[in-house]
Amino acid sequence: MTFDALRRKILQLDEANDSSKRSYLRAGAIMMSNDLRANIVKRIGPVPGVEIGDIFYFRIEMFLVGLHAQIMGGIDYMLPRLSDMDETLAISIVSAGGYENDEGDTNILIYTGQGGGCSSKYDKNQVVDQKLERGNLALERSLHRGNLVRVIRSAKDMNLINGRIYIYDGLYKIQETWVEKAKAGNNVFKYKLFREPEQPEGIAVWKNTEKWKANPSSRGGVILPDISSATAGESL
């Protein structure tokens, strides 16, 4: 609430002063400078105060509540405390929507590693492979360690300022990894994650809602076959 109140106030001032700086970035900067953050210490697993299905409109909101501490990066990782390990583990990922689901199963996520692509913005023909370092290496280690990884899925919403929302989808485990060729021709890392069972629905609710909005008849199950109870002379 504090973040959104600040953002709205700054937006009002920006409109009055014809300022072009993004209000949500300024609101986030004010909160950080005043230590208005929660769950500052990184952790593996659930984050206190954040529920599955919670929606975030800006990435900086996830940073402020401690869900995902990388404002720009898609992979967050940490060195476990009170452990004899000196290896970083992945603790959360943000799927930008460029993922593939096996047969539309929202409990499975195919995630592409970070880095690689065009080596120069001036030469699109020169591409570089992704490297097994930083976030990619942390995901690889999490596969072998079997630790839980928080997954935030993004979805398009053109009614919003940035055209996208972020939905906390719960805890996953990495089950498989491989390397494949991207469309640009470079090698990229792929990670297959499975959602932990017996969790509340997250992105599935959003996807079903969007499907029902586009095609109301696709909604299965009938609660009341005739809302008029036959008083209208025909079923309603």
Please describe what this structure looks like.
This protein has 236 residues and is of the alpha+beta class. It has two domains: 1-36, no CATH class; 41-207, Roll (PUA domain-like). It is 25% helix and 27% strand. It has five helices and nine strands; from the N terminus they run ααβαβββββαβββα. The strands form two sheets. Strands 1, 2, 3, 4, 7, 8 and 9 form a seven-stranded mixed sheet that branches. Strands 5-6 form a two-stranded antiparallel sheet. It is globular and about 65 Å long. The two termini are 41 Å apart.
Q: What's the gist of this structure?
A:
GO terms for molecular function: double-stranded DNA binding; histone methyltransferase activity. The chain has 236 residues and is an alpha+beta fold.
Second CATH tier, the architecture of the largest domain:
Roll
Number of contiguous helices: 5
Q: Mean of the pLDDT scores?
A: 82
The CATH homologous superfamily of the largest domain corresponds to: SRA-YDG
Keywords:
single chain, 236 residues, alpha+beta, PUA domain-like, 2 domains, seven-stranded mixed β-sheet, 9 strands, 27% strand, SRA-YDG_sf, PUA-like_sf, nucleus
What's the arrangement of secondary structure elements?
Elements lengths: L1 H16 L5 H11 L21 E2 L2 H7 L9 E4 L10 E7 L12 E5 L4 E4 L2 E6 L5 H12 L3 E8 L7 E18 L5 E9 L7 H12 L22
Parallel strand pairs: 3-7
Antiparallel strand pairs: 1-8, 2-3, 4-9, 5-6, 7-8, 8-9
Helix pairs in contact: 1-2
